[in-house]
Design a protein that fits this description.
Layout lengths: L6 E8 L5 E2 L8 E2 L5 H6 L4 H4 L1 E10 L6 H16 L5 E5 L5 H11 L6 E4 L12 H12 L9 E5 L2 E4 L4 E2 L8 E2 L7 E4 L2 E4 L24 E5 L7 H8 L4 E6 L10 H9 L3 E6 L12 H4 L10 H12 L5 H10 L1
Parallel strand pairs: 1-4, 1-5, 5-6, 6-7, 13-14, 14-15
Antiparallel strand pairs: 2-3, 7-8, 8-11, 9-10, 11-12
The structure holds succinic acid.
Succinic acid (SIN) binds next to loops.
């Protein structure tokens, strides 16, 4: 039964937004994920005027501890909400550390045109200048809006709206923690109204071919960070430990140290998928037909290493053909 106001389902997973500091003026030290979703919603003035909200607690963790189990729970619940005519939009409350990964995962596996907004906070709930209530107000307003329909998963943070594929955490402390390097936000929130100016052209949500229903885990993919003086042993260890894929966060335009290349080549010979990403935090690395490209090393377009890992996991759940995987990086 629809009420006059949009119905917004809010799924809480923990994070700083649900944190409590021992000292309200020392917001860098606190217990994460201790408040339940009911208390978080009760602290937001004006919410009842925006939407008919219902909160559910899915987890209570700092997002540095995020697991595939929680991802699958979120995906299952959000796909159910997508089919429920009594839900108009959804919000996920999440720690900021890995929000971008969860957002991109949900962007690829939730089959919906309904708004899906993720948010969190940089300061615990009782800190002076806590940002959680404002971010929740904006996320619920966005999820209740028509503007966010068909836009895929969105991150709304510090009054700005970002595409899940493009958003990344750029600051360890400041409330202006998210950005989309080289691309910018899709728009902003002003007084609870969404002002959106562009959208991601890549496939997502109802237009995505990825489906995790029936899955309990995803293929193991490790990220290995490139650096001066790098050695091959970590790549070799990842292969030995059974990784199905490696994302190498290379220097510059995804370049890999000469001492590490033989281990990458050996990984490919053993059938391990490799994405050669960049640790720079911005820019596009297109597919290339160099020595590694000929061996099936995939290039990530403009996805950062942590998002490349999400896409590689989902791609590997369907195929190990490097050309098909490369096509995924051109499409999603
Ligand atoms: C976390 O990601 O859970 C900790 C940091 C935060 O939420 O801001």
């Amino acid at each position: 039964m629809h009420s006059a106001k949009p119905a917004v389902l809010i799924l809480a997973t923990g994070g700083t937004i649900a944190g409590q500091a021992a000292d309200e003026v020392k917001s860098s030290s606190y217990a994460s994920g201790v408040l339940d979703v009911g208390s978080l919603l009760a602290a937001v003035p004006g919410l009842a005027a925006v939407a008919e909200v219902r909160g559910e607690q899915v987890a209570g963790i700092g997002s540095e501890d995020m697991t595939e189990e929680v991802w699958f729970k979120l995906a299952t619940r959000l796909n159910r909400a997508a089919r429920d005519p009594g839900v108009d939009g959804t919000v996920v409350l999440h720690g900021t550390d890995t929000m971008e990964e969860t957002a991109y995962f949900l962007n690829l596996v939730v089959k919906t045109e309904k708004p899906l907004a993720l948010t969190g906070a940089m300061r615990p709930a009782n800190a002076v200048g806590a940002d959680g209530p404002r971010n929740i107000f904006n996320a619920v307003s966005l999820a209740a809006s028509r503007a966010a329909r068909g836009m895929g998963a969105l991150i709304v943070f510090n009054d700005r709206v970002f595409a899940a594929r493009e958003a990344t955490k750029l600051d360890a402390m400041n409330v202006d923690a998210f950005g989309s390097p080289g691309l910018g936000p899709l728009g902003c929130m002003v007084d609870g109204k969404a002002h959106l100016y562009r959208k991601s052209l890549r496939r997502h949500t109802s237009n995505s071919e990825f489906d995790v229903s029936g899955l309990e885990t995803l293929p193991r993919v490790e990220i290995i960070y490139g650096h001066a003086g790098q050695r091959p042993e970590l790549v070799e260890a990842a292969v030995r430990l059974g990784a199905r894929g490696i994302v190498h966060a290379g220097v510059g335009a995804a370049n890999i140290h000469v001492a590490v290349k033989p281990a990458i080549i050996e990984a490919r010979r053993k059938g391990v998928a490799v994405v050669a990403a960049s640790r720079t935090g911005g820019g596009t690395v297109p597919a290339r037909r160099d020595e590694l490209g000929e061996l099936g090393v995939v290039y990530p377009d403009n996805l950062n290493p942590q998002k490349s890992r999400v896409l590689l996991q989902l791609a590997l759940a369907r195929t190990s053909d490097p050309e098909a995987i490369q096509e995924c990086f051109a499409t999603y």
